[in-house]
Design brief:
This protein is α+β, with helices and mostly antiparallel strands. The chain has five helices and seven strands; from the N terminus they run H-H-E-E-E-E-E-E-E-H-H-H. It has one domain: Bactericidal permeability-increasing protein, domain 1 (Super Roll), CATH 3.15.10.30. Strands 1, 2, 3, 4, 5, 6 and 7 form a seven-stranded antiparallel sheet that branches.
Length: 255
């Protein structure tokens, strides 16, 4: 499983570990204390990584090279690519959970559901970039650095998962944002343009993201379903190996 997929997949790892470990009948709910213990164990595993199954450390997550096809984001009249180099992403394992509900159903196939509110107090991306894209006929290019600090990045998660085939039958991740600190250099190969763009993003991003939360949820839902269900070339056994390795380290004990 490639490193660039791990970021958006991390919100599901804890649920997979907890629900696949449970040996319950019917729709009995996993006890909160046991789930919390598993989640804390998963947090520790993500911090260190599991080298033998290709799970990197998330503290921080290092991504050497990632090409983002802007066209896939369905932004009106936006085409082109942004290449990220030597990206460092931190804050992934600092999640806070509230209103966590996990149900396991082993009738008609092993599966379950998750409802939770996830908060990342400080999520930081620091990366080099090369941009070559067009938005509404306006060319946007440049090469430099991007620093983005997202404060209180919230995700309301609602998922239903079949674990015998590791298939998402339902997924809704609704993002919200409390604050942002964004800085870009090298945009249009001009530092004045870079400073202006940085200020614009800082002024409008929070309201824009929160207003477009449903649109982002649609995009995340489509991407994650395709990712986990295997239509983007991620092998089922890759995900299964990661889950099983986590289960070995973080078994759920039902008293």
């Amino acid at each position: 499983m490639h490193n660039n997929y791990f970021l958006i997949f991390v919100a599901l790892l804890a649920f997979f570990a907890a629900s696949k470990s449970a040996k319950l009948a019917g729709n009995q709910r996993i006890l909160e204390d046991e789930v919390t213990e598993v989640l804390e164990c998963v947090r520790g595993v993500l911090k260190t990584g599991i080298e033998e199954v290709g799970l990197p450390s998330f503290e921080p997550l290092e991504v050497e090279h990632l090409v983002v096809n802007v066209t896939e984001f369905n932004i009106n009249n936006a085409v082109g690519h942004v290449t990220l180099n030597t990206a460092s992403i931190s804050g992934i394992t600092d999640w806070d959970l509230s209103d966590l509900k996990i149900d396991v159903n082993i009738i008609g196939g092993i599966g379950g559901s998750l409802v939770a509110n996830i908060d990342l107090p400080k999520f930081v991306i620091n990366t080099g970039y090369i941009a070559d894209l067009s938005v509404s006929g306006i060319n946007i290019f440049g090469e430099g650095e991007i620093y983005m600090e997202l404060r209180h990045l919230g995700i309301a998660a609602d998922a239903k998962i079949l674990l015998n085939r590791i298939t998402l039958s339902k997924l809704r991740l609704l993002p919200t944002l409390g604050d942002i600190n964004f800085k870009i250099t090298g945009l249009l190969n001009d530092e004045e343009h870079s400073e202006l763009a940085s200020q614009i993003v800082n002024d409008i991003a929070v309201d824009w993201i929160n207003q477009k939360s449903e649109d982002f949820a649609d995009l995340i839902e489509q991407f994650l379903q395709e990712l986990v269900n295997g239509s983007q070339g991620v092998k089922q056994r890759d995900i299964g190996d990661i889950i099983n390795a986590i289960l070995d380290r973080c078994p759920l004990s039902i008293k």
